[in-house]
Amino acid sequence: MRLSEIEDHLRKFRVGIAGAGGLGSNCAAALARIGVGTMVIADFDRVEQSNLSRQYYFSGQTGMMKTEALKENLVTIKPEIQILTFQVKLDRENIPLVFAGCDVIVEAFDKSDMKEMIIESVQKELPGVPLIIGSGLAGWGRNELLKFRKIDETLYVCGDEVTEASDDLPTMAPRVGIVANMQANAVVEILLRISLKAM
Amino acid sequence: MKIILNDREEEFEREAMSVSEMLDLKKFSFRMRIVKVNGKLISRDDYGSSVINDGDKVQMIYLMSGG
Question: Which of B21, B50, B23 has the alpha carbon at shortest distance from B38?
Answer without folding.
Answer: B50
